[in-house]
Design a protein that fits this description.
about 425 residues, Antithrombin, Chain I, domain 2, Alpha-1-antitrypsin, domain 1, 9-stranded mixed sheet, 10 helices, about 35% strand
Length: about 425
């Protein structure tokens, strides 16, 4: 069969975003802009989270997060991204992929459940993450989590009803119609405005000029918005400059926070682990620092290792020293996903996204990722956005000193499900 040249293929654009600071909602509804909305007739389900499928999904997502971290971490410097946001948005692509494209996404993203169980599990996970506090667990105003999905389609682009129903039922994603062909720049500004609203202004230009064209057909968006205060805040008066040893052995003086508290702590095989709970006891920041050989530690870490370190945590009185840090990150994820075996969706001749519209002319042309993380005395703010173009009165015993004064890994984890909401490393705070 004769095929058109790559230049005339429509592109598929996904925008995946994850951010710190917000309220709980899942339908993606924000103040209206210059678009109209098409919905499935099916309402989003609110399934109970069954333990085995949820555990399989979280374990696979965590292994994907670590694999992606290793690929992105091959470049020097600090790193931050939202594994949950990336996995969720690419799951919506997976729902429309067929044949080899579906197989590569399944393998590369470590999806261990077959459809429709995979999408049911993503829905259950989002429901669990954004659920109201369980009975007996107090509501906490200083902890909020928001997860929203939306789809932006060209007015010229048809969608299969089955795909529209899956997005509505399992991802709560309303479909907005934009005229990419008539005014691509206006469409780009509309989507960027939605992103900015969803991320409290942290990500204001997710889709750069030229990223949306007359050939754009879809933009899938996912937003994770997180803000949490520490259960045990650091006293700003105790923050003081201290040395931090970089990977190359050089030292830099950085503002370092201090507190003596009883915190989950472990030291296993030369790795120090400390977990800092957020107010409300629904999420925590897990810090992992090897005694030496950080590159080898990062390269060899897997989901089982993290689970073992979490299992080893014991409440221990420690004198914690943690650098205050804030950094941003931007990268294209195309080559990273190709390194993980996801290739065909980027090739106009090979991509099979026929589950979206029944045709074979859609492909992904770019995936841009942007992230921001700030950890300070009050708590954590984290933001990430990705565009895929198609959180005693008695005398205490002596405190165990724990100084994060060399490169370390961090994960913001939901405590009930184990889902990794944000992940990164600090090699130069």
């Amino acid at each position: 069969m004769l095929r058109a040249t790559p230049a005339v293929f429509p592109t598929l654009v996904l925008a995946l975003l994850g951010v710190g600071l917000a309220a709980c909602s899942q339908d993606g509804e924000l103040p209206p802009a210059s678009y109209d909305t098409v919905r499935s007739t099916l309402e989003r389900q609110a399934p109970a989270a069954e333990r085995e499928p949820l555990a399989a999904l979280v374990a696979g997502n965590t292994d994907f997060a670590l694999a992606l971290h290793r690929v992105l971490g091959a470049q020097p410097g600090n790193l931050a991204f939202s594994p949950h946001g990336i996995s969720s948005a690419l799951a919506m692509v997976h729902a429309g992929a067929r044949g080899e494209s579906e197989r590569q996404l399944t393998q590369g993203l470590e999806f261990r459940l077959p459809p429709p169980a995979l999408h049911e599990a993503f829905n259950a996970l989002d429901t669990a993450l954004t659920a109201a506090p369980a009975p007996g667990r107090p509501a906490e105003e200083t902890f909020t989590l928001n997860i929203v999905n939306a789809v932006w389609k060209s007015v010229q682009q048809p969608l299969k009803q089955s795909y529209l129903d899956l997005l509505g039922r399992h991802y709560g994603a309303a479909v907005r119609r934009l005229d990419f062909a008539r005014d691509a720049e206006a469409a780009r500004r509309t989507i960027n405005a939605w992103v900015a609203e969803a991320t409290a202004g942290r990500i204001e230009d997710l889709l750069p000029a030229g990223s949306i064209t007359a050939l754009t057909r879809l933009v899938l968006t996912n937003a994770v918005y997180f803000h949490a205060a520490w259960a045990l805040p650091f006293d700003p008066e105790r923050t003081a400059p201290a040395a931090f040893r970089r990977l190359d052995g050089s030292e830099v003086s950085v503002p370092t926070m201090h507190q003596e508290s009883r915190l989950p702590y472990a030291r296993v095989a030369g790795t120090t682990a400390v977990q800092l709970p957020y107010a409300g006891d629904r999420a925590a920041l897990l810090l992992l620092m090897p005694e030496e050989g950080y590159p080898a530690f990062e390269a060899g870490l897997d989901a089982e290792d993290i689970a073992a370190l979490v299992e080893a945590l014991e409440p221990t009185r420690i004198a914690l020293a943690l650098p205050r840090f804030e950094h941003g990150y931007r990268a294209s994820l195309v080559s990273a996903l190709e390194a993980l075996g996801v290739r065909d969706i980027f090739d106009p001749q090979r991509a099979d996204l026929s589950g979206i519209d029944g045709g074979r002319d859609l492909h992904v042309s770019e995936i841009a990722h942007q992230a921001f993380v700030r950890v300070d005395e009050a708590g954590t703010e984290a933001a990430a956005a990705t565009a895929v173009v198609i959180g005693v009165t008695a005398m205490p015993a002596p405190a165990q000193p724990v100084r994060f004064d060399r490169p370390f890994l961090y994960l913001v984890r939901d405590l009930d499900t184990g889902a990794v909401l944000f992940m990164g490393r600090v090699v130069d705070p």
